[in-house]
Amino acid sequence: MHSQVKETIGDVIVDEKEFYFPIRHKTEKSKEIWSKSLKYTPYGVHSNYRALDPYPMYFKSGRGSRITDVDGNSYLDFNMAFGVLSTGHSNPLLINKLKERLENGTILGFEYYNSYKLAKLITSRFRTDKVRFSTTGGEATQAAIRFARSFTGRNKIIKFEGCYHGSHDSLLVSTKPSSEKAGDPKLPNKVLSGTGVVRSVLEDTVVLPFNDVEALVETFRHQGNEIAGVILEPVPMNMGLVIPKKEFLQTLRELTKEYNSVLIYDEVKTGSKHYGGASEYFKIRPDLLTLGKAIGGGIPISAVTGSEEVMKGVGPGKTPHAGTFNSNPLSIDAGIVCMEDILTERNLKQAEKLSSELSKAYRDIIEDDDVPLGVQDWSLSGSIYFTKKQIRNWRDFLSTNVNQWYRYYYMMVDNGVIPAAPGPDEQWTVSVMHTKQDILEHIEAFKDVSKNLKHVSSQLQIEEAL
Ligand SMILES: Cc1ncc(COP(=O)(O)O)c(C=O)c1O
User: Where in the chain are the domains?
Assistant: First the structure.
C-alpha cells in the first residue's frame, strides 16, 4: 500500500512515516536493503503491490505460520503471501516431495507424465471436464477470456468494479478507481488502471457494480448478444472480502446461459480457501474457472478448467494456449501433494474453524471498545473494514478510513503479528498450519491495538497501487 501519509497531533504536523511506522527501530536492515534495491529497481520491489510506505520490509524465511524478516524479527503471519500459502510456509509434506523432484529435473521440455494425475484431481475437485495448466493467476484469467471469446465469436467481457484479475492489459480496467473517476455508481465509467494499459481495451470491456442484480439484467437486455463472457471473483478479495448475494450469482448464471455467454469464476484466491472453491460453496457452476496461488503451495502454478464444450476449442490451429513453464514437473508435483495431502477437506475445515474464531474475537473486541470498524469473513479468510458501512461493492469500500488502516496494520506488526496481506483491500489467510495458539496471539495483539483506533482522522484516499 503506497500513499502519501499525512498526520497531525494537535498543531504539530508529525513526520507521517514516523507516526505510522512504529517498527522503524527494528527494521534498519530492511531500510538499508531498500536503499540498495532502489538503485536497480523502481520502488525497490518487483510487484507494485509490495511498494509499502515508508519502505518495504524485506524477508528471508518462513516456516509454518511464521515468517522472519532480514533484521531477524519473527512474525506470526496472516498475509501468507497474499493467500498463496493456505498450505503454510514450507509445508514439510511439500518439501519432501520437491527435494526428490529437484534432483530429477524441474523442466523436461516435453509433457510430464504426472500432469494427468493433477488434471484428474483438479477436475474432480472442481467438477469440471477439462483443464489447462499455466504458471500465474494472470495467465489463467487471460486465457479464460480468450477461450470465452473464441467459443462465442464475440469480444465483450463484463467485469466488476473493484475486482482484480492479474496484471495484464485485458482486465486492468476499474480495478481501484477513485470515486471522481468512477462516476455514477450504478453506471460506472470504465477507468484504465494506469498508464501504458492499451486504451482500446475499454471498447471490449463492460464494467458493472458488484452485487447489483438490476445492472446485470439491464446490461444483458441491451447488449446480451455481444457479451462473450463475464468474469468475476465470486467472493471478491481485492476490496477486502465481499460476500456475494445469492440472487446476484444466480441471476448471473441464468443470464449467461440465456445469452450463451461464458461465465468465468476467477477462483485464483477462493479456489483453495474452501474445498471445491466458491462454486462448490454456493453450488453454482461456472463454465470456466481459474485457479492459482495456493494450488501449488508456494510453487507457481495456475489453471483454467471448465466444461468440455468450451475447452474443446483450445488447440493447435484453433485457440492459442502455450507456455514454456506450463505443467512443469516441479509445479505439477507440488499441485498433486497440495490436492492429495495438504489442502484436504478436513484440513481446510479446521483452518476455516480457526478463521471464524478469529472473526468472532475481532467482532467482540470491536463492540466492547466501540471502535468504528467492521469484519466480513468467508472460509479461512476475513477482512477488517475501517468503516461502519456494510461492504457490498467497490463504492462502499471507498468509505475506508485509510489512516486508520495504517495505524492498525503497523501497530499489529509492531506487536509481532502480520494481521493480513498489506492494504485495506486485502484479507487474512489462516493456513492449515496455523494453530489455536496462533489465533489467540493474534487476538491478544489486537486487544492492545483496538483502543488506539477510535479517533483517527481520515485524510488519505484509497489509491490505485497496481
Ligand atoms: C482474484 C485474482 N485473480 C488473479 C490474480 C493474479 O494472479 P497472479 O498474481 O498470480 O498473476 C490475483 C492476484 O492477486 C487475484 O487476486
Answer: 7-86+344-453, 92-342
Q: Is the CB of 438 under 6 A from ligand 1?
A: no
Q: Look up the CATH number of domain 7-86+344-453.
A: 3.90.1150.10
Interatomic CA distance for residues 411 and 414, integer angstroms: 5
Across-strand partners of 230? 158, 263
Burial class of residue 168, CB neighbours in 10 A (0-12, 13-18, 19+): middle
Query: Does any ligand 1 atom lie closer than 6 A to the CB of residue 165?
Result: yes
**293 part of the active site:** yes
**Span 304-323, pLDDT tens digits:** 999 999 999 999 999 999 99
Q: Are strands 227-232 and 156-160 parallel, antiparallel or unpaired?
A: parallel
Nearest to 53 by CA among 78, 30, 84: 30
Q: What would the pLDDT profile of 225-242 be if each residue is shown by its tens digit? A: 999 999 999 999 999 999
164, 385, 408, 409: which is the annotated catalytic residue?
Answer: 164
- With beta carbons less than 8 A apart as the criterion, state whether 281 and 125 touch: no
Q: Is 49 in the pocket of ligand 1 (CB under 6 A)?
A: no
CATH class of the region 92-342: alpha beta
Asked if 7-86+344-453 and 92-342 have one fold, the answer is: no
